[in-house]
Amino acid sequence: MTTRILLSALALAALPLAAAAMPQVGDMVGTNPEDATAALAGFGCTVDEFEAEDGMIEAKCTDETGKMWEVYIDPADGTVAQIKDED
């Protein structure tokens, strides 16, 4: 009984972390703006704009806490190549 209560409490405590999870390097988000915007939104990252930078697609986005991020997407395969804290 105690174990079940502890596991339930841990699962509830982890929910906000799961909701605010950012994409990771290697995650597939797509190469067109519609797909990338939808995929990043699924990670809790609202896209503000896209730019081309150093041969990559740069998505500037805001997470659920209001923190700004730069997500670099490989235009050849649509995977996340790099993530930078914009602050």
Overview of this protein structure:
By secondary structure, the protein is an alpha+beta fold. It has one domain (22-85): Nuclear Transport Factor 2, Chain: A (Roll), CATH 3.10.450. Helices cover 32% and strands 31% of the residues. The chain has 2 helices and 4 strands; from the N terminus they run H-H-E-E-E-E. The chain has helices at residues 2-19, 33-42; strands spanning 46-53, 56-62, 68-73, 80-85. A 4-stranded antiparallel beta sheet has the order 1-2-3-4, covered by helices on one side. Strand 2 (56-62) and strand 3 form a beta hairpin. The radius of gyration is 16 Å and the shape is globular. 16% of the residues are buried. It comes from Wenxinia saemankumensis.
Can you describe this structure in just a few lines?
By secondary structure, the chain is α+β, with helices and mostly antiparallel strands. The chain is built from two helices and four strands. Strand 2 and strand 3 form a beta hairpin.
